[in-house]
Specification:
The complex is a heterodimer of chains A (286) and B (365). Chain A has 286 residues and is α/β, with parallel strands linked by helices. Chain A has seven helices and 15 strands. Helices cover 22% and strands 30% of the residues of chain A. Chain B has two domains: 4-85 and 108-228, no CATH class; 238-273 and 296-362, no CATH class. In chain B, helix 9 (249-257) crosses helix 11. Chain B has 13 helices and 16 strands. Chain B has 365 residues and is of the alpha+beta class.
């Protein structure tokens, strides 16, 4: 089980720290990456996160939202958050320009078991915006590429225009990650795969399933079928890790909102080993 | 230390000592035809000569034949409203020329003395301690208030039809978690100290050593409560029983009766779900983040990404019951239920969780 860095228990978990928008990158329609920097140098100096962890971003008067870090895990000074404009907070955020300030609490939650999986083959499986929480883990692998076996990214999106970080794919491929993409729908000029991401997984030849770790992030239904496919391909549930999602308010297991069966997604997750989540993951209305 | 006796006429001295020490004394008092917990100044504020009659969906005050001060069981309030306040400001934000400045309010610590805490309620405090104090993150408001609070427990000498503390191993006898524990007799209270703080307090009270027959009387009075308890909840393997029956037809059955009114979660002494809302001044320059009690029975509680995860009563009742009795054990190492029976009494349609569990158990091979 991955363990988050021990939080400073003496600290008030509700105290946000002021961050400034240092950079804004439009990724695809409706998705933007915000580089955030702390206004307090002491916060900036002490801030560390693990791939897969999230922050609570706060706009006073609007509210808070749990946003995964999409930054390089060794980032210093500014941290990237890739955000889809969806609810109140993200819509208000979309109206802010560089230099605007907001609040940040974090990092919270569990992380991808990437540092513990050296010598393994790594299978990243992402759907849509789900590539954002995986990107820190991908960066980690790129930094230590020789310590891993075969590394693949299977990425599915609704359309070619809905794919994130495509400008990085060549670099990732050159560095030794086999990037395969697929889309649900495409115009006639699309020469790539069409179909769900599990189709890519089903036809993959896995050299050593017993030494493969699968990390998946995307819509629930996509992760469910990815896990099923992985099990059919000879992986055990202990080798499959998913990122679960629920509404969060406190991020520290005190408000009760994000429960899924016995799990608090905020503090026990969001990254779970599949065997732990499997009994509850697809129960309607749980 | 041997048990001592505080004369009924000296109970006011206990209140006076606590108040002079700076405590707000919170105790039982009659309000709106119920015995509730509120700040009290005098023994005259206590529900002298009143008792409560409880059944599923029913709560009535009735006159007793004696002048007992603690001759009732539990009412709609629990002590959690003082340690985990229904409304609290968690954080603040102020707009400055340099952008938003974040803060947390510096609340003066409220020093409460709780008078009349029942055994099941001591257990409930322990349950909330595990939630708010013993996980990886600590709730600062609960922590400050809990550490400052002093507890004068009162042993039950009767039980309601809705009580099942004996099934949950939480009562009716107060065994730990108090500073002082009283057992009421007609002419006074047998007092035991449960902490150094309690011993120190006791040393300042005009008590005398209790006579043997007074101790026997106290034993008998406490035994009455045990005899009164008729309701049971079989907790054998209850975690697996419920979590392995997430699609049991009983959830559909209870959903036809449950109104999703949230009463059970509001009266429950352990339910801790909350939500945060933004409260800003007219300019929007000063914002406070207010936490208020919420409930898994509220429709919006499971809002996510423009939809609702638990969009029917079946799923919301299932969430409440499986959390309370099953997944709570995974999360906090104990049941979330202390057997106080409030959720049964205050359910407008009298849904009884012990019966719901029994129904699932009966039909599980």
């Amino acid at each position: 089980m991955t363990v988050a860095p021990a939080p400073a228990c003496a600290a008030n978990p509700w105290l946000a720290h002021t961050v400034r928008i240092a950079g804004i990158t439009a990724e695809i329609t409706g998705v933007t990456t915000y580089d955030l920097e702390f206004t307090d140098p002491a916060q900036a100096a002490g801030y560390r996160f693990l791939p897969g962890q999230f922050n609570m971003l706060y706009l006073p008067g609007v509210g808070e939202s749990a946003i995964s870090l999409s930054a390089h895990p060794q980032s210093r000074g500014r941290w990237a958050h890739t955000i889809r404009t969806a609810g109140n907070l993200t819509q208000a955020l979309a109206r802010l320009g560089p230099g605007s300030t907001l609040g940040l609490r974090g990092p919270f939650g569990s992380s991808w078991p990437i540092a513990q999986s050296e010598d393994c083959d790594i299978l990243f499986v992402a759907g849509g915006i789900g590539l954002a929480p995986l990107r820190p883990a991908i960066y980690h692998v790129l930094d230590r590429r020789s310590h891993y076996g075969r590394v693949m990214l299977l990425y599915g999106a609704r359309s070619p225009e809905g794919m994130l970080y495509t400008c990085e794919f060549d670099r990732w491929t050159a560095a030794g990650i086999d990037v395969q993409t697929t889309v649900d729908r495409a115009a006639t000029d699309w020469m790539g795969n069409v179909g769900t991401v599990t189709v890519l997984l089903d036809r993959l030849s896995l050299a050593r399933p017993e030494k493969t770790i699968l990390l998946a992030c995307g819509p629930d239904v996509m992760m469910h079928f990815t896990a099923q496919s992985a099990l059919r391909r000879g992986l055990t549930a202990e080798q499959v890790w998913l990122s679960a999602e629920r509404n969060m308010q406190c991020a520290v297991g005190l408000c009760g909102h994000c429960q899924l069966g016995p799990e608090f997604i905020c503090k026990d997750g969001p990254i779970f080993r599949y065997d732990r989540l499997a009994p509850y993951f697809r129960v309607e209305g749980l | 230390m041997s048990d001592t006796l505080l004369a009924r006429s000296q109970l006011q001295t206990l209140l006076d000592v606590l108040r002079s020490d700076g405590f707000s004394v919170i105790g039982p008092t009659v309000s709106q035809e119920a015995i509730v917990y509120d700040e009290i100044e005098s023994v005259n504020d206590l529900p002298c000569g009143w008792t409560d009659v409880q059944e599923p969906g029913k709560y009535r005050l009735e006159r007793r034949s004696d002048e007992a001060l603690f001759g009732y069981v539990v009412g709609p309030h629990s002590w959690k409203k003082y340690l985990f306040p229904p409304l609290a400001t968690l954080a603040t934000a102020d707009r400055t020329d340099a952008g938003w400045t974040m803060g947390v309010p510096a609340e003066p610590v409220r020093q409460y003395a709780f008078l009349g805490v029942r055994a099941c309620e001591l257990a409930a405090l322990r349950v909330q301690d595990r939630v708010f104090l013993e996980g990886p993150y600590v709730d600062p408001i609960y922590k400050a208030r809990r550490e400052a609070c002093l507890i004068v427990a009162v042993n039950c000498t009767q039980a309601a039809s809705t009580c099942f503390c004996t099934s949950m191993n939480t009562g009716p006898r107060c065994t730990a978690g108090f500073d002082l524990a009283l057992t009421e007799l007609p002419h006074g209270f047998v007092v035991e100290a449960g902490s150094d703080r309690g011993s120190a307090l006791l040393a300042r009270l005009p008590v005398r050593e209790a006579a043997d027959d007074e101790l026997t009387q106290a034993d008998q009075a406490r035994a009455e409560a045990v005899k009164d308890i008729t309701r049971t909840l079989n907790t054998d393997g209850i975690r697996d029983l419920l979590l392995n029956n997430l699609e049991h037809p009983r959830w559909d059955d209870v959903a036809t009766r449950c109104l999703s009114c949230t009463n059970c979660t509001m009266v429950c002494p352990t339910c801790f779900c909350s939500s945060v809302t933004e409260v800003s001044d007219l300019q929007g320059d000063h914002v406070e983040r207010e936490r208020h009690w919420d409930s898994c029975f509220n429709l919006d509680f499971s809002y996510m990404n423009g939809g609702l995860v638990r969009n029917n009563i079946r799923s919301r009742y299932r969430q409440w019951l499986t959390h309370k009795l099953a997944s709570w054990i995974d999360q906090f190492g104990s049941s979330g239920c202390v057997g106080c029976g409030r959720c049964i009494t205050w359910c407008p349609v009298g849904i009884d969780l012990t019966q719901e569990v029994a129904a699932i158990r009966e039909t599980t091979p």
